[in-house]
């Protein structure tokens, strides 16, 4: 679960670092990708693992549409009000549209390709969770490689660090924004499809992921790609342990308390710049 | 409305058309508001009026912190829910009057606001929004599993057969509820009006413009934000208490919810942030519209109204952050003719100093 949080949050971290805005509809992109996966399963009997590419495409397209229609408009205006509430409103719009189309019922995929659990010694690990973690780490590694090792990725990093300087160096920043949304869509699409394997789906499931992503991004450091991996794993572990110790119904409370404590003592997070 | 009357008495030397219009308009509005439940006897319309007033209080609460102040709250549902729960629980468990419960709810909300504000107010506005958003779900989880406050079943208020203002229950009639909420509305708007005209009001507006500059001029940013946060949380909690006593039922899923927070945000932003009348206008527009849409197109499961509100929030955020009142201000040229005509004095005095 921690690895999936890390994957979702690294997409958010990238976008927030790149655009310097707070993206409140990030969790709803996860919801969209989960519903895509669910739809493909229920119509074509396509396994969630097979539908990963479709999910990536869908969430990338939604992300790019968000950028073109809303965020590029808001970036021009100086008020932080517009920047915050445009994505917040979009989150509501997406969630309620999904509710309108799919009804608010809880859904889940039956009989996926990976099912059951394997046991190593005394520890039982459910297979879909393991697949999710491994898949998320793989996807994360791919993104990491792309950002750190390819010229495009380095241009992206440059844009993230200083947009004006990057412009002067001849980097097409608009293209970089789109690239950022694509990578974010890749992260979210993969995470959504992997989640569909074992997680229930309903229109407001994204809210949880949104909130946890904010915690992870804050903990890991604003705009730090490595930080979100570490922080995601930490949050996953905190959630699991507290679920075990004080009961599964309270498992998110320590996570949010962590958020407040981090803000109090180290607002720039574990690996944040500035 | 009352203020206009006072102004008229103080300033008898000069009576402009605007004053006459304002006084007459204010009186008409007051009479209309007071007689509303007697003109419209259908309970549906009364219900709409009550909900509108309730969310107008809520919107004003949000407006104090996020309109005048500079921290955008995404989770005013926290304070709303705390207000609702504290009065409901105290009333059902110990028979304590909801009016006392309202005050206790205000205290609880204020302390939560201070706790949340302590780490987040010194950071950029977005952090407060994220913290409140997360806190909403924390409280939802806590209240869902807290046996003492009725866990996921919520709290049902016992139905008393007789009406009593002390117990906040009136059998068979919504008129009294309407007067109570109107009273609370006028009270809260007077409070916010006073605050916006006070030193604190100027401080927070200065902080919204430029926090660093305000700080360098000796404004204690943290302290002022905390005070504003407390006012905002208390008002939201008052709305929550009224909600609980009016609905006679509270449950965690319907109170600690992002939709509740959206209502706060919408009624303030739609009307116009950082204005006194904005939240009222916003609530007057959006509550009846929402109810009508829910009545026409599907029930609660369809969420068509939420779709519309999401869209409206995006539009406001992109094109018109100042809301409907901002539109009036932008088209001031058209209205300035009217206002000039309004300002012309009808009774001229001999010693006309530079008051106006």
Question: How would you portray this structure in words?
Answer:
The complex is a heterodimer of chains A (274) and B (356). By secondary structure, chain A is an all-alpha fold. Chain A has one domain (2-204). Helix content of chain A is 73%, strand content 3%. Chain A contains eleven helices and two strands, in the order ααααββααααααα. Chain A has helices at 2-19, 26-44, 52-76, 80-102, 127-149, 151-161, 163-168, 173-196, 205-220, 225-245, 252-265; strands at residues 117-120, 123-126. In chain A, strands 1-2 form a two-stranded antiparallel sheet. In chain A, α1 crosses α6 and α10 (225-245) crosses α11. The two termini of chain A are 29 Å apart. With 356 residues, chain B is an all-alpha fold. Chain B has a domain at 43-258. Chain B is 73% helix and 3% strand. Chain B contains 16 helices and four strands. A two-stranded antiparallel ribbon of chain B has the order 1-4. In chain B, α2 (17-39) packs across α16 (332-343), α3 crosses α13 and α5 (98-120) runs antiparallel to α10 (221-247). The radius of gyration of chain B is 21 Å and the shape is globular. At the A-B interface, α3, α4, α9 and α11 of A face α5, α6, α12 and α14 of B.
């Amino acid at each position: 679960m921690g690895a999936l949080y890390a994957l979702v949050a690294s997409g958010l971290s990238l976008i927030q670092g790149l655009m310097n805005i707070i993206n409140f509809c990030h969790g709803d992109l996860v919801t969209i990708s989960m519903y895509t996966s669910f739809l493909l399963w229920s119509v074509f009997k396509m396994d969630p693992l097979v539908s990963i590419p479709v999910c990536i495409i869908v969430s990338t397209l939604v992300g790019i549409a968000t950028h073109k229609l809303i965020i590029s408009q808001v970036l021009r205006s100086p008020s932080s009000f517009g920047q915050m509430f445009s994505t917040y409103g979009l989150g509501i719009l997406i969630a309620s549209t999904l509710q309108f189309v799919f009804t608010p019922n809880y859904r889940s995929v039956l009989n996926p390709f990976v099912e059951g659990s394997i046991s190593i010694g005394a520890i039982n690990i459910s297979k879909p969770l393991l697949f999710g973690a491994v898949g998320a780490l793989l996807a994360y590694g791919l993104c990491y490689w792309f950002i750190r090792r390819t010229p495009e990725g380095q241009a992206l990093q440059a844009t993230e660090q200083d947009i004006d300087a990057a412009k002067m160096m001849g980097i097409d920043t608009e293209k970089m924004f789109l690239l950022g949304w694509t990578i974010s869509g890749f992260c979210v699409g993969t995470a959504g499809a992997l989640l569909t394997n074992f997680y229930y789906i309903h229109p407001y499931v994204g809210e949880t992921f949104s909130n946890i992503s904010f915690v992870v991004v804050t903990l890991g450091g604003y705009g730090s790609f490595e930080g979100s991996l570490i922080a995601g794993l930490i949050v996953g572990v905190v959630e699991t342990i507290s679920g075990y110790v004080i009961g599964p119904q309270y498992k998110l409370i320590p996570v949010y308390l962590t958020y407040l404590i981090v803000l109090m003592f180290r607002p720039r997070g574990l690996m944040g710049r500035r | 409305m009352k203020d206009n009357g006072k102004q008229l008495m103080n300033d008898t030397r000069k009576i402009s058309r605007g004053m006459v219009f304002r006084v007459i308009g204010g009186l008409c509005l007051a009479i209309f508001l007071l007689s509303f439940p007697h003109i419209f006897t259908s309970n549906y319309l009364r219900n709409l009026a009550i909900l509108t007033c309730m969310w107008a209080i809520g919107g004003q609460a949000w407006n104090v912190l996020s309109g005048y102040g500079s921290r955008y709250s995404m989770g005013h549902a926290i304070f709303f829910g705390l207000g609702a729960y504290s009065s409901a629980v105290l009333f059902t468990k110990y028979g304590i009057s909801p009016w006392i419960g309202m005050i206790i709810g205000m205290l609880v909300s204020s302390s939560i606001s201070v706790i949340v504000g302590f780490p987040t107010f010194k950071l950029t506005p977005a952090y407060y929004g994220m913290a409140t958003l997360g806190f909403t779900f924390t409280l939802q989880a806590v209240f869902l599993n807290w046996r003492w406050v009725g866990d996921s079943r919520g709290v049902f208020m016992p139905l008393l057969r007789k009406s009593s203002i002390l117990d906040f229950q009136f059998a068979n009639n919504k008129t009294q509820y309407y007067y109570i909420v109107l009273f609370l509305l006028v009270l809260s708007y007077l409070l916010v009006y006073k605050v916006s005209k006070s030193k604190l009001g100027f401080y927070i507006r200065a902080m919204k413009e430029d926090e660093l500059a305000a700080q360098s001029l000796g404004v204690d940013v943290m302290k002022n934000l905390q005070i504003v946060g407390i006012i905002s949380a208390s008002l939201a909690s008052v709305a929550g208490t009224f909600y609980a006593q009016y609905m006679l039922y509270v449950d965690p899923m319907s109170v600690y919810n992002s939709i509740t927070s959206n209502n706060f945000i919408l009624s303030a932003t739609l009307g116009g942030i950082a204005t006194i009348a904005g939240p009222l206008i916003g609530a007057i527009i959006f509550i009846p519209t929402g109810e009508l849409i829910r009545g026409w197109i599907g029930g609660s499961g369809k969420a068509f109204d939420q779709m519309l509100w999401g869209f409206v929030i995006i539009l406001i955020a992109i094109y018109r952050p100042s809301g409907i009142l901002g539109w009036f201000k932008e088209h001031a040229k058209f209205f300035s003719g009217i206002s000039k005509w309004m300002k012309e004095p009808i009774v001229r005095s001999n010693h006309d100093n530079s008051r106006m």
